[in-house]
Amino acid sequence: MRTPRRLALGARTVRWRFTALYGAMFLMSGAGLLVINNLVGLRGTRSSHAAPPGVVPDRPATLAAAMELNQLLQAELSQVKVAQSRQLLVGSIVALAVMAVVSVALGRIVAARVLRPLRTITAATRRISADDLHKRLAVAGPADEVKDLADTIDGLLERLEASFAAQRRFVANASHELRTPLTTMRASLDVAMAKPDPVPAQTAALADRLRAELDQVDRLLEGFLLLARAQHGASSDGTAFSLGRAVSAALDARAAGIAAKGLTVHDGTVDDRAWTRGDPTLLTRMIDNMIDNAVRHNHDGGWIRCATGAEGERALLVVETGGPLLDQGQVALLAQPFQRLSADRTGSDNGSGLGLSIVAAVAEAYGGGLELRARPEGGLRVAVSLPLTSVRAGVPA
């Protein structure tokens, strides 16, 4: 969020640098012209021997009278020179002040015209996100430095688009291909355990452990697919979705697990205005992961508080749990894939490490965000904000 602001400040700094440069150049040119004009004017004044206007020299009758007349004329000529020099200096100062203002204005205009193509490229590049890498700047014009920069950015976007597409294909293909041998392994295990001969206890225990591990791998692959879809395949369009109803459905579906751990579910604020828009499958999975995280990483006899609401233009969902004090630095990393807190802090070492990363990816895909905060009293606060919609059509999953 801060990067565009820094770029904008940088662009204004460059513009002011260009303004100062062009303004100084215009000002120096004007000052040079004024200096030349003053030098030429002073030289012309010095070379002028004409009598001042209004004085008609009379032919002197004697040498003394001629000398007196000469001194008078020189005194008056000196006064005229001083007056002309003063007027020329005042005019030069006024002209220089006007030239300074004009120079700054011209410098700013020229700087704006020089940087206009760069601002256009910057604005177009900001509008291109990971979901529309197919867009290009396509700057038209002569083959100059600006067009070369735009073509370089277009080439970079093309390589990024190919890289993102290859990543999506790899994750999807790998997940699907790995499910085939997993299904075969599970079927072979079931066939081996279904034989009529008595199965040793150790073999049965090993089979149960293998089934559990196969289920874990299957959940991991499903998490990969959901994460890839949320990061690169989610669309902002979709049906209206009620966060409050989805939370209630998720808690009801996990009532057995909540009761098994003796957890207390506190009824938080449930605001029926907390509606958003998106893919119900992804949004339901986001909420399910938040509830699963609260149930799985909770100690026996703990508590869970869920709340939904609307704040301004945002729909909010908050899930809080009690527990030991957590480190905020470690909590902030939980939105990244395969990041877990230690088992002694969470009370469990289960999970794929993708739950909250999927929550973050889904929230970001629909213009929202995930906030993870360690509660001062102990435990974790997970909050999701999404764009609020007033349309209450559609049935939430």
What does this structure look like?
- It is an enzyme of class 2 (transferase).
- It is found in: Cell membrane.
- Helices cover 62% and strands 12% of the residues.
- The chain has 397 residues and is of the alpha+beta class.
- The chain has three domains: 126 residues, no CATH class; 68 residues, Helix Hairpins; 149 residues, Histidine kinase-like ATPase, C-terminal domain (Heat Shock Protein 90, 2-Layer Sandwich).
- The strands form two sheets. The chain has a five-stranded mixed sheet with strand order 2-4-5-7-6, with helices on one face. It has a two-stranded antiparallel ribbon with strand order 1-3.
- Helix 4 runs parallel beside helix 10.
- The radius of gyration is 40 Å and the shape is elongated.
- The N terminus and C terminus are likely disordered.
By secondary-structure content and strand pairing, the structural class works out as alpha+beta
Order of strands, widest sheet: 2-4-5-7-6
Described by the principal axes of the CA atoms, the overall outline is: elongated
What would you say the CATH architecture of the largest domain is?
A: 2-Layer Sandwich
Strand content: 5-15%
Number of DSSP helical runs: 10
Count of folded domains: 3
Number of strands: 7
Calculate the mean pLDDT score and round it: 78
At the fourth level of CATH, the homologous superfamily of the largest domain is: Histidine kinase-like ATPase, C-terminal domain
Name of the CATH class of the largest domain: Alpha Beta
Describe the main β-sheet briefly. Answer: 5 strands, mixed
In angstroms, what separates the terminal alpha carbons? 32 Å
Radius of gyration, rounded? 40 Å
